[in-house]
Amino acid sequence: MSNKQYGISYERKEKAYLMEKGYTANRNRGSFGGWDIVSCNKEHFLLTNVKSTKQKYHSYVKELEYAKTFENAPKGTMKRFVLYKQGKRIVLYEGVI
Asked: Which of 6, 17, 32, 9 is nearest to 91 (CA)?
């Protein structure tokens, strides 16, 4: 499995997780932008960036900073940065615009 396929599998897993929680979720195919999944429920929009790694050491400093400083969305929009490390889901950041 290539690195891209590995990452896509976790984007799909996160999308299924969000749908299970009541969101309508859309994965941005081939996303090279800031958000891999855009979803909503009756209360708010949620922008999610998903990263995955098999390695013990990882650095997503630029991507995490982008998520933290992003403000170009309606007030009340949530933003989330999720890492799947060796299959375990870890939320590294969650904020509200």
From this structure: 17
What dihedral do alpha carbons 11, 17, 19, 25 form, nearest 10°? -20
How many whole angstroms separate alpha carbon 83 and alpha carbon 71?
21
Backbone φ, ψ for residue 6 (5° rounding): -60, -45
Tokens 């958000």, residue? Answer: 35
pTM: 0.88
State CA 72 to chain mean position distance: 17
The pLDDT value given to residue 18: 97
Token duo for residue 49: 């960036």
